[in-house]
Amino acid sequence: MDRILVLVRHGQSDWNLKNLFTGWRDPDLTPKGVEEARAAGKRLKALDLQFGIAFTSVLTRAQHTLKLILEEIGQPELPTVRDLALNERDYGDLSGLNKDDARAKWGEEQVHVWRRSYDIAPPGGESLKDTGARVWPYYLFNILPPVMRGEKVLVAAHGNSLRALIMALEGLTPEEILKQELDTGVPILYRLNADTTVAEKKVLKG
Ligand SMILES: O=C(O)[C@@H](CO)OP(=O)(O)O
User: What ipTM did this prediction achieve?
Assistant: First the structure.
């Protein structure tokens, strides 16, 4: 039996383009982001996967990406669950600020720690560890069961909520997850073993 899980970060958002901390704010995709999402759909279509269920966050950029992928693969009516457990890491007080302005104000090093450290949260926001504390149980109780039943599962979410998920899925250490960057609109296909560990990982880049 195939146990297939596909993770995809949303296409470029308006605030990715403007270089703003986004978190739980809700910008839509740019035209480039729309293209990235459609291209992701085309790459998945070429694999001829019939998905059984999709999961996404409550944020527009992830839902829009999912909608475009589902159109491309010819499954626009796929049952979809939306949950804020999959939302982007909450950037707290940094939300809406320009990333270069933040570096000028607080310094390169501090901003890097806020963006990529495992357990240091930006002021008023979540660390990756905090994000994992909501993503991991959601994965275990909601996403993993259909995968293990053989339904192919598609998850459209965000850079840091997916980094948290990947950390658990691949058993990465806090040091290893620091270096993991996810491209917008690039699906990652996992095939799982019967014991839920990863048998195979493919990054579906154009
Ligand atoms: O702004 C955000 O919410 C995220 C993702 O775009 O940014 P970062 O690259 O700092 O994790």
Answer: 0.95
